[in-house]
Amino acid sequence: QVQLVDSGGGLVQPGGSLRLSCAASGVSLDTYAIGWFRQAPGKEREGVSCISNIDGTTFHADSVKGRFSISRDRAKNTMYLQMNNLKPEDTATYYCAAPSPITTIQEMCIRPGPNGPWGQGTQVTVSS
Q: Cβ distance 68 to 62 under 8 Å?
């Protein structure tokens, strides 16, 4: 059974940093293009950062460019989201996912497909 477990969220002050982790079991992350999505109360789900399993191509939402980076550790079968210079508007529940089907990494992030595993979510709160 494929399972994604995301972790690493917490409370951080504006300007601070967090690193989210997404550990996979039951499948190698090399098999999937994967990404991070977030949803704040009362808002639609937003694709944050996604990465290709083929060539490492990445996509980042405009709202996080220059502040967030996505990476994967094949040996640990884990994906990470490094979040720097956090802002209050980054407050949300963050989910890792491997949506399918996909066409491009950008498309996967903007309009994730209906299939594929999702993590349970980890809360990120940015507040002073």
A: no
